[in-house]
Amino acid sequence: MEAVWEGRFEDLFLRIGHRFGRADLRRLGRDYLRGLLAPIGRKNVWQLAEFAGHSAPDGLQRLLNRANWDADEVRDDLQSYVAEHLGEHDGVLVIDDTAFPKRGTTSAGVQRQHSGPAGRTENCQIGVFAAYASAVGRALVDRELYLPKTWTDDRDRCRAAKIPDERDFATKGDLAKRLVLRALASDLPIAWVVADTPYGQDGRFRRILEQTGLGYVLAVPKSQHVFGPRVDHLFARTRPGVRDRVPGGVRAEGPGGLQWAAVELPTVARFDRQGHTPVRRRWALACRSHDTAEEAVYFFAYAPLRTTVGELTRIAGTRRQIEECLQAARQECGLDQYEVRRYVGWYRHITLAMLAHAHLAVTTADGTAAEGEGMPPVSWSRSQRQKSVGAWRCVSPGMAGQAGRFARTC
Length: 410
Description:
Mean pLDDT is 83; it is low at 240-257 and 374-410. Helices cover 40% and strands 22% of the residues. Helix 2 (23-37) crosses helix 3 (45-52), helix 2 (23-37) crosses helix 15 and helix 5 (71-86) packs parallel to helix 15. It contains 15 helices and 14 strands. A hairpin with a 7-residue loop joins strand 11 and strand 12.
């Protein structure tokens, strides 16, 4: 098994080795990536250097901060790697952001802001991420560092953190659009985009997706207006209770009391028709559990004409997969364990950690396929830590037999 693991690792590094140019940088890049995959406690440059047998971390620090190589080129290789091994024609691009707690004020983009993992406001950096999900597997494929206006309005502070002069303020929605457009220009086969409320409520983000012809299922707040009324009022006024059928719409239930309801929305001729022929449909979705007092979660969906509501609920369920990817990348690949302050160092560490995570995802997928063919599975990690949260399968009656994977909450 060790020989198989080493062979897979060397095949991966062959994809990116030329990006480092010189032989000494290639050795440092290999050591860094191998360390991110290793079963060591904390994956900062000191422990990665020790694992690699270096006498000091200076070489790995140089790799992250001063060496001449482009992390975006490695990201492009990462996307091609994921497309080759996990790509499916109905692949889903999942967008979300996460926070990285930091001390001090000099790390690029750091300030007191809301941290999703902590559930509170704290001193942190925020990255906007894209994950690719298919029936084969899922992996992180792109990233952008969010820079608050307090940073972009202070060019001297930006220069001290090595932030390029051309990097202006961009909202998280703007960064998400960059991720989508880059993914479309890559080898990744994408049919859908899924994102949580901060992105779903951004009308400009939705328009970009419609212009590209991608389908989407985007969470929206209950106060989101939909052709007039708020989305929660749209569902409330068409039914006296959450358990009742939606007139003119679709309702379905799954195990655990999970209930979905859908209402078809008016079409927009500019995006939804070719001539006089409809080619796309719009939906509002609501998801709620019978056995809890939690409020419903609402979605806007935009889909090819023949897409069933069951398929839309399955796609909606993939939005939690990026959380699993981020959790696994933190636990297994040191995604959040960097000790760099400069802008370029953040992108380099995050990109290599994403590549390490993709390697684990691909090895897992290959091992699962081999096991299905009666071959012994390949062990993809020597770590004993939990790698992801559980998921359960929901088969919804009345949805043409469609099955979907959902996280434990909507």
